[in-house]
Amino acid sequence: MDFSEAKNTGDAGHRRVFLTPRKFKRYIGKCRSYSLGVTKSGRFEYIAKFPPFFQHRMHKNNKTLGIIPARYASTRFPGKPLVDILGKSMIQRVYEQVQNAKLIDEVVVATDDKRIFEHVNEFGGNVIMTQSTHQSGTDRCAEVIEDQRFNDFEVVVNIQGDEPFINPNQIDLAVDFLNNNEEFDTTTLAKRIDEVEHLFNPNIVKVVFGQNRKALYFSRHPIPFHRNVLQEKWLEQGRFFKHIGLYVFRKSILQKIAKLPSSTLEKAESLEQLRWLDNDFSIGIEITNLETIGIDTQEDLKKVDSKFINK
Q1: Are 127 and 241 contained in the same domain?
Q2: How many domains does the chain have?
Q3: Adjacent-strand bridge partners of 62
Q4: Are residues 256 and 160 in the same domain?
Q5: pLDDT of 281-291, one tens digit each?
Q6: Segment (H or E) for 217
Q7: Model pTM greater than 0.85?
Q8: Exposed (0-12), middle (13-18) or buried (19+): which is 45, by Cβ within 10 Å?
Q9: What is the domain extent for residue 110?
Q10: What is the CATH number of the domain that holds 78?
Q11: What is the per-residue burial (b if ≥16 Cβ within 10 Å, else e) of 257-284?
């Protein structure tokens, strides 16, 4: 983005800014008006007007890297990233969805498996080999950002490699929430639970948060507990939210989090984000109404195939 040619338009302090098509796609929702022009070199540029308060945000380096951690040796579903889903591998579907997010500048798959590495190369994706000793996807992301190729990225998104139909708008929602809420160290998403089966499924992580959208706790158990109420009536008595496993970090925070030792709560629930809460890192929760479809088992895969074939 070139601010050197920005000029005062006289429109209540609004200023004219020259944007590349990709940057325009990112900021279109914030501009007051725009037009399309061609530079002397023949390159297309958008000329857009933004209010002064938003120009300050645009000056900040929010260049965003989307990382998809992918390992072959899953306990419940070995080889999951390479499984075929309606003609494409799971990892390719995730990759293409992330590419469609407006606020993601670059996408890379982080793996420790040669088969996944070669497959991503085959479909033209970016991929990097990482160590096989990582205990979590976040640890794998932390290794990636130490690579010199990604020095100029300041925001990092950890996208689960087992959600082949994640909506790009969800990614943008979480990224935008971090960019506009500096009090949070990281942000993620939650969706209201509307089925009792989901509420009591330990594979669906639940989250509770305060009025300021700051996460209080994550659990595989339904939270909060409703005393003296039949379990089948819990959804009628209160609001429950499931966690959507997408994390947005400032790079400096990710580097700190990766150095933390495992915590007691993390080990109890097998949820890495509890390590961050244990160490007083704040997690902001943005609400989404969009559903996600995670693939944890072969049975999950059969349900997804059936659902999308019927469309």
Answers
A1: yes
A2: 2
A3: none
A4: yes
A5: 999 999 999 87
A6: strand 215-219
A7: no
A8: buried
A9: 64-309
A10: 3.90.550.10
A11: bbeeeeeebbeebebbbbbbbeeebbbb
